TrEMBL record:
Spans through the membrane: none
InterPro entries: Mo/tungstate-bd_C_term_dom, Mop_domain, Transp-assoc_OB_typ1
Name recorded for this polypeptide: TOBE domain-containing protein
UniProt record, GO biological process: molybdate ion transport
Keywords: Molybdenum
Keyword RNA-binding listed: no
Pfam families assigned to the protein according to its UniProt record, in alphabetical order: TOBE
Source organism of the structure: Campylobacter californiensis
SUPFAM superfamilies from the UniProt entry: MOP-like (SSF50331)
Length: 129
């Protein structure tokens, strides 16, 4: 989970776009409804599924994914079929589940800096603080 502050909520035709500040980055979330009790200035905890995290060793260009999280690889649990990449952003830890083949192709190493990408439709508020 990542702690963030809600900077802005834009709602049009039943769809809301939330903009958050988390440490030094902005994150975005799309929601089909405005969430009750959640308003600009509130602190929240954001979450996403590990399988929704895309790992890149270089910044992606011309990409539709809005949420780019610079992260440090802290551990790699490599299996025959899938690998779990343990990541740290600021003081927050999260994981990415990728195929073992992708882990090998990326040649990921503990201590390496990577970019974790999460679609705005995958982000959700797990707790209002």
């Amino acid at each position: 989970m990542i702690k963030a502050k809600i900077l802005n909520i834009t709602t049009k035709n039943g769809v809301s776009l939330y903009k958050f500040q988390a440490a030094q980055i902005c994150l975005f979330m799309l929601s089909l409804d405005r969430i009750d009790g959640v308003f600009e200035g509130r602190d929240v905890m954001l979450n996403f599924k590990s399988s929704d995290v895309i790992i890149a060793t270089k910044e992606l260009e011309a990409c539709s994914v809005k949420n780019k999280i610079p992260a440090l690889v802290t551990k790699i649990s490599a299996g025959e079929i899938l690998s779990v990449i343990h990541l740290k952003f600021d003081k927050f830890e999260f994981e990415s589940i990728i195929t073992a083949g992708s882990c090998k192709d990326l040649n990921l190493k503990v201590g390496e800096r990577v970019f974790a990408y999460v679609k705005s439709t995958s982000l959700h508020i797990s707790e209002v603080i």
